[in-house]
Amino acid sequence: DLFSVDPKSGWVSVAKPLSRDIAVSVKLSIVVTDNTAPMLQQGMGTLIISIIDVNDIPPEFEPPWTRDEPNYLLEIEEEQPIGSLLGKFTALDKDSSIALYVLEQDGDMFSVNNITGKGLVASRPAFDNLNPLNLGAFDSGEFWINFDYS
Ligand SMILES: [Ca+2]
After folding, report:
1. Cadherin domain location, by residue (predicted)?
2. CA 138 – ligand 1 centroid, Å
3. In terms of pTM, does the model score above 0.85?
4. CA-CA distance, 88 to 115, in Å (whole number)?
5. CA-CA distances (angstroms) from residue 48 to 16, 27, 31, 59?
């Protein structure tokens, strides 16, 4: 009962919300009848509908990050050598892979591995005038975490 067909036009419509949890592929028998002919005239066919998976779950970072409180607090010492590893942040996605990590910052104090997200790294020796930093993990959607400093 996932689909309905208009008996006059033959248009097939979705009758219920589709989910691949219910069916991945649906096979329907189609019968068309010419009711103007004196003898019954019918044609038959098969309609196969494939339900394609939709990427509808955005990436999530590990706790203590949550959607409502998308924050990590980092405590770092100043005067870190360039290249120092300051933190590791990995996002998980239940229905797709992570395509890219992006760091949003004022200036160039930090860098991050765009593919793994791991390794928030110092790219300048001194951290002065720190502003909150945003790290985003992208699949086809997007999600961001914020960093605060102390
Ligand atoms: Ca996803």
Report:
1. 3-61, 68-128
2. 8
3. no
4. 12
5. 17, 4, 14, 32
Q: Domains of the chain, with CATH numbers?
A: 3-50 (no CATH), 60-139 (2.60.40)
pLDDT, tens digit, 9 for 90 and up, residues 1-55 = 889 999 989 899 999 888 888 888 999 998 999 989 899 899 999 999 998 877 8
The predicted pLDDT at position 87 comes to: 81
For ligand 1, the distance from its centroid to the CA atom of residue 31, given in whole angstroms, is 39
- Tell me, rounded to whole angstroms, the distance of Cα 62 from its chain centroid: 16
What's the CA dihedral at 3, 8, 9, 15 to 10 degrees? -20
Tell me how crowded residue 142 is: count the other CB atoms within 10 A of its CB: 13
User: What is residue 109's predicted lDDT score, i.e. its pLDDT?
Assistant: 81
Measure 113 CA to ligand 1 centroid, in angstroms: 20
- Facing residues of 45 across strands? 30
Residue list, CB under 5 A from ion ligand 1: 55, 57, 93, 95-96, 139
Q: What is the pLDDT of residues 72-106, one digit of tens each?
A: 888 878 777 888 888 888 888 888 888 888 888 88
